[in-house]
Amino acid sequence: MNAKPMNAPPGLMTEERRMIKETAREFAINEILPVANELDPVEGDIPAELMQKMADLGFFGIIIPEQYGGLGLGAFEYCLVTQELSRAWMSAATLIRHGNWLMGTETLTEAKRRDLLGRAAKGEYLSALAMSEPQTGSDISNIRTRARRDGDDWLITGNKYWCTFADGADCIIVIARTEPEIDAAHPHRGLTALMVDKPRGGFLDGLKGTPIPKIGYFGWKTWELAFDNVRVPGDAILGEEGRAFYLMAESLEVGRAHTAARAIGLARGALEDSIAYAQVREQFGRPISHFQAIRFKIATMATEVEAAEALLHHVCTEIDSGRRCDSEAAMVKYFAAEMAERVTSEAIQIHGGAGYTKHHQVERHWRDARLTKIFEGTSEIQQRIISDNLLGRLRD
């Protein structure tokens, strides 16, 4: 995918953006969808060949600056590609975020930044995030994994949960507590992001992983990790020591827009499949698309998808303009995720019994859409952010 930075009018789908969207859609339908239909039902992993094709199109470097080997585009283009890939398989759409990471790299030396981002843009240095723990989800101030100094190095000890792609990544970004005591008044302080380099396809000495059984989000494994004095270099820090909480907060707007794009892509796929199915499935001597109940379902589904997409375009424009939009990002993540669950559920209803089988893609879209209400901050967390911005925060 060849593209250059664009000074696009706010919120508009320019010709360049349409080309990016069409390139991503063509790739999703022709390359990803057949693989998804084959591997998702058997919980198979995304093949290396498909990852390489994604790398060749520049998908891993959409938001990485051109001087580091990326495309130098913005959140708008990043989410356009994400949405189209999700229409085929959400796992493949999620995979590109493991290359498109800038979080905390500005504090690295220029040589190291150039090396890491250059390899990431080519899909040669992919990361996984180990933040959640068995007893810690949205409240990252409760993190218990610790990293302590040992000479010039760090030793990491603790347990992490919900680390997707931990085995396939070249680096695991571990959020660990680096101060010996938790500040009861400010428990979010003292957290540090550490880069744990590892061989792709395996783990390190002192690091063990157990796959978590899931009901969806196949194509890769999600892991529970146990760190037992895993040694990393002293300079393996992203951002500033003790300030990982703020580092993560800075990336939330793009992360939530990306999740909204994934949800919209799933819903769009379910809608398109439902339209096609309704036109060929016959009952009582005519296609079910002739029945008002089905027609009204599809009309409502289409309206909700379009509304979510319009809100996403607005949020991405705000992000690319450099304006703070934490409330709007929470809104689009909340609205798109809730919408996707409704739309994919209705798609199963339109397909009837066939929709409850693995012969059709709508059951996959439904299972994956359910997850968008949970990761990157639950729907309830998004509602709290929105209400706090509108009404003020409640004191404990």
Quick overview:
By secondary structure, this protein is α+β, with helices and mostly antiparallel strands.
Task: Give an account of the 3D structure.
By secondary structure, this protein is an alpha+beta fold. Helix content is 46%, strand content 15%. The protein has helices spanning 15-39, 48-56, 75-88, 90-95, 110-121, 244-250, 252-280, 292-320, 326-351, 362-372, 379-391; strands spanning 127-130, 146-150, 153-164, 171-177, 191-197, 207-211, 222-233, 237-238, 282-283, 286-287. Strands 1-4-5-8 form a four-stranded mixed sheet, with helices on one face. The chain has a four-stranded antiparallel sheet with strand order 2-3-7-6, with no helix packed on it. Strands 9-10 form a two-stranded antiparallel ribbon. A hairpin with a 2-residue loop joins strand 9 (282-283) and strand 10. It starts with 14 loop residues before the first helix and ends in a 5-residue tail after the last helix. Residues 2-8 have low confidence and may be disordered.
Task: Give the helix/strand layout.
Elements: H1 15-39, H2 48-56, H3 75-88, H4 90-95, H5 110-121, E1 127-130, E2 146-150, E3 153-164, E4 171-177, E5 191-197, E6 207-211, E7 222-233, E8 237-238, H6 244-250, H7 252-280, E9 282-283, E10 286-287, H8 292-320, H9 326-351, H10 362-372, H11 379-391
Parallel strand pairs: 1-4
Antiparallel strand pairs: 2-3, 3-7, 4-5, 5-8, 6-7, 9-10
